[in-house]
Specification:
Blueprint: E1 2-9, H1 26-38, E2 44-46, E3 55-64, H2 76-79, E4 86-94, E5 106-115, E6 128-130, H3 136-144, E7 148-151, E8 166-177, E9 180-187, H4 194-206, H5 214-221, E10 236-242, H6 252-257
Parallel strand pairs: 3-10, 5-6
Antiparallel strand pairs: 1-3, 1-4, 2-3, 5-9, 5-10, 7-8, 8-9
Helix pairs in contact: 3-4
């Protein structure tokens, strides 16, 4: 039997999603908790791997098991064995042809950036920070130029293992909500460090160091060295993955709306 889970986590205590020998990753703690409930080893697959310090609202995970448990056991029982920074929000039985990664039609990320002279304290580790005011209008105009199918080589990490740098960007926006600037991105898929590299470039534009048209030159260059530095991981959230209605999974929109730390666009 294959089970899909919706998982949220605060990424600061972990060295990313993917399992590591030291055992301090989200995948490691989740698999240990699932194994405790199942009584046999459980291996998981996620919709989108996240790096050290990156958070998730609607990470989708699947695993296979021959052990029969009520759906509540895969939620409350697993949560009882998880650290406080990780929680399973829902569990849904799915067909054997469901795959958390390969069945995803799109993925969404949100980046929260605080632009004020004083660094954050209460939101430390949960938002990025820039010490001077940024021009949100210029950043939003620049973000609009990212929409469409492009070669995003300029915004990929040297460690990226994706087969192709060409991705379809459906949504790219920047909007202000009080002290926070909220960047939203939805694409067919993302390259390693792509969102953080995009935010770095947009901050250059928002600070007046470059014009919105610079985005066109960066896309054409296909050269990581031509762009701005990678922005901090702390403000990045994996909002969720989009799946077809045939899977009957809870929507990422409801997951996003229920989180007080991620303000919704006005």
């Amino acid at each position: 039997m294959r089970i899909a889970l919706g998982v949220e986590y605060e990424g600061s205590p972990f060295t990313g999603w993917q399992s590591q020998p030291h055992g301090n990753t989200v995948q490691d703690v989740l698999e240990r908790a699932l194994t405790s409930v199942a009584g046999v080893p459980v291996a998981t697959v996620c919709a989108g791997r996240t790096d050290t310090g990156v958070h998730a609202l609607g990470q989708v995970v699947h695993f296979d098991t021959n052990v029969m448990r009520p759906d509540t056991a895969w939620v409350r029982g697993v949560n009882a064995n998880l650290p406080a920074a990780v929680g399973v929000r829902w569990a849904v039985p799915v067909g054997d042809d469901f795959h958390a990664r390969f069945c995803a039609r799109a993925r969404s990320y949100r980046y929260l950036l605080l632009d004020r002279p004083v660094r954050p304290a209460l939101l430390h580790g949960r938002v990025g920070w820039h010490h001077t005011p940024l021009d949100v209008g210029a950043m939003n105009a620049a973000a609009a130029r990212l929409v469409g199918e492009h070669d995003f080589s300029t915004f990929r990490s040297s460690e990226c293992q994706a087969k192709s740098p060409v991705k379809l960007m459906r949504v790219a926006t920047a909007a202000r909500q009080a002290d926070l600037i909220v960047f939203d991105f939805t694409a067919s898929a993302f390259l390693h460090h792509m969102v953080r590299n995009l935010v770095g470039a947009l901050v250059y534009i928002g600070s007046g160091r470059q014009s919105p048209e610079w985005v066109d030159a960066l896309l054409a260059a296909r050269d990581r060295s031509k762009s701005a530095p990678t922005f901090a991981a702390s403000g990045l959230y994996f909002v969720g993955a989009e799946y077809g209605p045939e899977w009957s999974l809870p929507s990422s929109g409801r997951i996003m709306a229920s989180s007080h730390i991620l303000p919704l666009p006005t």
